[in-house]
Amino acid sequence: HKLARLLEPNPSLRYHGNRVVVTRVLITLMLIMFLLHYSTTVLIRGKVLALVQSGLGLMFFLHRFERSGWLWSF
């Protein structure tokens, strides 16, 4: 019975997955900040900011999509 419970998708596994995602996001943000800090031209800075905004928008959308339960209903 305990094995079956372990094999079931449990909240702690999802939480661990979220922690991995958060870690990746933090690393990505740090890299972006590093790039922004060392990008001298306004053009590059604008492009990076646009990339960041679209990336954050996509992540927010996916997070909302996941929270709504659509991903887990299949």
Automatic annotation (TrEMBL):
The organism's place on the tree of life at top rank: Eukaryota
UniProt keyword list: Membrane, Transmembrane, Transmembrane helix
Keyword Membrane appears in the UniProt entry: yes
UniProt key word Transmembrane: yes
Name of the protein in its database record: Uncharacterized protein
Organism annotation: Nothobranchius korthausae
Transmembrane regions: 21-38
